[in-house]
Amino acid sequence: MIKQILGKLPRKPSRSADNREFGASSTPSLITADPGLMTNEAIVSNSASVSNPDAAFRSAYNHGSKVHAGVNSKLNGNSINSPYEALPSFRDVVNSEKQSLFIRKLKLCCVVFDFTDPTKNLKEKEIKRQTLLELVEYVTSVNGKFTETVMQEVIQMVSANLFRSLNPQPRENKVLEAFDLEDEEPLVDPAWSHLQIVYEFLLRFVASPETDAKLAKKYIDHSFVLRLLDLFDSEDPREREYLKTILHRIYGKFMVHRPFIRKSINNIFFRFIFETEKFNGIAELLEVLGSIINGFALPLKEEHKLFLVRALIPLHKPKCLAMYHQQLSYCILQFVEKDCKLADTVIRGLLKYWPITNSSKEVMFLTELEEVLEATQPPEFQRCMVPLFYQISRCLGSSHFQVAERALYLWNNEHIESLIRQNRKVILPIVFPALEKSSTSHWNQLVKNLSLNVHKILLDADPEFFEECLNKFREDEAILEEGKQKHEATWKLIEEVAAAKLEKQ
Fold first, then answer.
1. Most buried in the list 11, 142, 289, 491, measured by CB within 10 Å?
2. How far, in Å, CA of 220 to CA of 61, rounded?
């Protein structure tokens, strides 16, 4: 029923911020909330975490406004001293009284109920839910700019409901490995039936053309943005999806906050990389950043280049890379496509954080490397090709078939194959030994076949130089074999001398 009600609510198009630093996103989900999130079924989970209502209310964003006098704001056990009753519908009052009624409804919704016990305050919870739905409808259809008083009350209500401590529930044998967390069911907040409507309300309020950014920035300020960013650590993916869309809207509408938002996200990444390696919303924050980076003006500012080097590239370090690698790759590729000279910086950064014992991460690195190389021009390629192909050579010789296979697939990319062919005099001697061994002695037949295909590509590109490399490889192998035989002969002699001494004793 709620889905039907929300589905009927009209949407007003937002006025996009026409600024060169905020361009069109290639990720449409940032612009419009997922319709699947519009369902509003009550969800009750015994394992879900719920913040203390008193603490949540006390931490509400306070701009001097007080909660409605007819409602007890301190819900000790959710016992309400004064009657919590529904207010008249907007349809039942004249236009001149609607704004006053809107404020009264906002105050009514400042009360936060305890959802840990689904049997408590059923009537009051339903009154609040219906009131929240009315607020969503009102903020969508209103004509006329919101006043400062209304904005103050809006932020008060939103803060009272959303800003709460996120206390993660313990999972059995919980670890940060991506393949473990992907199999876990996401923990959900039992108060989601209310939270979702508050998020929808905030989204439509921010996006509304009736919300004046110059006036609203007094209330949607740095403190509000920081608390919103803290909520990205929520374990509920539906909440993070709403937060992503709302943050994107705030970034687009409040130009004055853009540097602060970027800096705050930067700080979250620093804590995640170098301190905790625990934060649930990294993927969503990167998705927002992908759209932001897409809109960066050229030439890139030094601030943006430093962000790439100090925050984005080090994000390859944590063990749980798989949870956000797709979004991270997109952000980094945006930088390379905007400034091809950054390709060398990115490739050397990948080599710095290249995994040694984690094969699944190595496959991800090779996949990202292919995307970066595809956008790399010959001058940048030549600056980093020697250390790069020493690493690729190690991948070609990997006993893990997926790593070797992914490295061999680089030759299937026409642009990369062209770069290799142009610089074959340097690259072929580096990769030839590993390629020759994998084509003859690798345990996986597919790797052998792919190695033979690469052999043919290199042979066709320059038969004479290929023959030189082959002869050099055979000479080196002969020298190694000779050294091995001498080594074995020396040890055999030592053993014979030791045995002779024992016999004399």
1. 289
2. 10
Buried b / exposed e along 318-346 (16+ C-beta atoms within 10 A): bebbbbbbebbbbbbbbbbbbbeebbbbb
Q: CA 473, CA 338: separation in Å to the nearest integer?
A: 41
Sort residue 108 into left (φ over 0), alpha (ψ -120 to 50) or beta: alpha
Q: How far is CA 263 from CA 55, 212, 219, 401, 456, in A?
A: 28, 24, 20, 41, 50
CA–CA distance, 145 with 148 (Å, rounded to integer) = 9
Q: Are 194 and 131 in contact (CB under 8 A)?
A: no
Q: Which residue is listed with tokens 């490295």?
A: 407
Contacts of 168 (CB under 8 A, 6+ apart): 49, 187, 235
pLDDT for 19 beyond 90: no
CB 68 within 8 A of CB 107: yes
Q: Where are the alpha helices (DSSP H) in 79-147?
A: 95-108, 122-141
Reduced to 3 states (helix: H, G, I; strand: E, B; else coil), residue 147 is coil
Query: Looking at residue 111, what DSSP letter applies?
Result: -
pTM for the full predicted model? 0.79
Could you give the percent of the chain with pLDDT greater than 90? 66
Of all helices (H) and strands (E), which one includes residue 330?
helix 325-338
Q: CA 63, CA 163: separation in Å to the nearest integer?
A: 15
Please say whether the beta carbons of 343 and 375 come within 8 A: yes
Local structure of residue 145 (DSSP, 8 states): P
Mean pLDDT score across all residues of the chain: 83
Query: Token pair for residue 233?
Result: 């650590």
- Tell me the C-alpha distance between 195 and 132, whole Å: 10
Instruction: Please give the C-alpha separations between residue 231 and each of 189, 243, 247, 267, 473, in angstroms, as whole numbers.
Output: 12, 8, 11, 15, 58
